[in-house]
Specification:
By secondary structure, the chain is α/β, with parallel strands linked by helices. Helices cover 30% and strands 24% of the residues. Strands 18-19-20-21-22-25-26-27-28-29-30 form an eleven-stranded mixed sheet.
Length: 622
Amino acid sequence: MKIDDVGIIGAGPAGLTAAIQLKRTGYDPVVFEKGEIGGLLRNASVVENYPGFPEGISGPDLVSTFRDQAERWKVRVLRTGVDLVKKNDDHFTIMTDDGVEHSFRKVIIASGTEPRTLDLDGASSLAGRYLFYEVADLLERFDGGKVLVVGGGDAAFDYAVNLGSRGFDVSVIVRGSVKCLPLLLSRAKKESIPIIRSREIMSIGPGRKGLAISHMDPAIGEDGTTETVEVDAVLAAVGRLPSLTLLGESLLREFIEQGEDSGIYLAGDIRRGDFRQVGISVGDGLMAAMKIAKVLGESRLPIDVLEEGSNDEREEVPVDPLRSGSDLFVHKSHGNDDLARVYVGSFGEDGRKIEFVESVQPPVPREDKWVLIVSTLFGCPVGCAMCDAGKDFSGKLTKEEIWSQAEHMIAERYPDMSVPVPKLKVQFARMGDPALNPAVIELMRELPVRMNAPGLMPCISTIAPKASGDFFEELLKVKDELYGEGRFQMQFSIHSTSEDERDEIMPIRKWSMREIAAYGERFFKPGDRKIALNFAPAKGWKIDPYRLRDIFDPERFLVKITPLNPTESLREAGLESLVDPDDPGSAEELVKGFEEQGFEVILSIGETRENLIGSNCGQFIS
């Protein structure tokens, strides 16, 4: 299991500042953000008290400067929410809403605050469509119209001024007295924004032309007169609350008792309550990062120095950077055209690197069989015990970015994109589990028209992440529509017949073997290739052919056995391959056991020279 140094929840000013400072100190933090980068700062009409901008700057423009600086430092931001943070003996596990688990030594929570919602019947059903709690969200849906802003504080009046300056017909309704800064009140009057004072909203619902808002004087109560106003949208700014529910009860109790000694650090609005200012958030993020660096040790060189001084002892054949496909730059290639060639590429000025590979399988010549292996993620969030791709993860590739890898390799040999090879395998299996990226399905639908390749055979190899149910449903459809009659290869990673051991080998929420079997019953059609159950076993892992037969039907599934490749992760975990690539007889007993249970068995031992090239799953980048 790979444990990174620091996980940061939230990509607002506090989170981004902490990440940049940690990068300067030599660490490589991971930032989690479920929404848009910038947090509440995206809502600010103008920021006048942040040094360096004497004329003031809009919130979105200041967010843009933060984002640019984070990108220059190559801060990794994962666009996913966090469900739960758990404490283990010596590290934390961050569980994201896409079913992935990430492990860290320290965690910074800079997730800001959650809005107080209107406690009215029907309000929840209108949220995100006609009822909003942040001006940025409203502006994504409306570009004009009549808006009622609810609230009497700084945020409410800043939102109203923001909308008024954009041409909206805005009014503000205040339950009690106005509590905003006089400066904001003056600006609201300058924009001629009506203020409805001492009124409490009683109901919200559909009106004749929009929303109907009923309100009354709270001092009079039910005996008072109720008035109704119709608007296109409501923007409520009635307070915000910090939330630490993602810590869970036991970890929250530990944090309350121990504070930062627990390994959890708070930064920004979640720590400061009502003192919500961008300058305070930046200072909090900087302080949290400096404290963590002091605890973990500041002996590291800055990241950029490490990159410049690194030295890969494997022979490389550098090539001029080439631009191909969407925005692909090929920095280097390494290998042997008679066996395999691995490419290292990136996209534009993004900086995140990927690998892709072309290979043949001697003695079969390329003219008969050619294999293209492409990446679908920048790294991989799973962190399988034997795979170096899990050492880093920084997002999903787009459809065009995935395609450009295959396009580059094809264009090198077949510039007209007409590939006469009888068997052209395109494997979505280099860096990243393809089931975590819906763009793979999109590209599979288009492959037959992007190239003229009668022998095209897409291949999916996956651990079956539990959060990827929609992917597998769409995969079933596209296979039946375009790649039936044996023109598709499906493979699931099994590795052990113990579910507990599988969780250790592939530390992510995933389908059980019985769930994989149930899907396979639906997936397999007469004429299809059998679904492969892949075992790349280490010595000591539990493999029971009888248990496998109890779960999987040999009429639909076959067993594929491969040796473990000599990756850095394998060495760090102290694992040793059960199958010796120099001695096929080492797998004889295992093969026999599966065959006795009725399974067709493929013993796939490639050329050991590929280990030197780095074209196996050894991850040449690492």
